[in-house]
Amino acid sequence: MNSQEERYTRFGLTQDMLATPEIVRNFDVTRMASTAAAIRQVGRLLLTGEGSSRIFPAKSAMRQAAEQGWPIALRTEAGRQAQETQLKDWAVFALSNSGRTAEVIGLFQRLAEEGHQHRYSLTAFADSKLESLANQGYVLTCGPEGAVAATKSVVEQALFYRALLEQAAGVNDLAGRLDQLADQMHEALTRALPADIIDQVAKAGTIYWAGRNDGVAEELTLKTNEITRKPADYLEGTYAVHGIEEVMNADDVVLWVDPYPDSESKFAEVLGKGVGMTIIAIADRETQFPTIRIPSAGDLAPFVQMCAGWNVLVEVGLRLDIDLDKPQRARKVGNEFAG
Question: What fold is seen in the domain 30-173?
Answer without folding.
Answer: Rossmann fold (3.40.50)
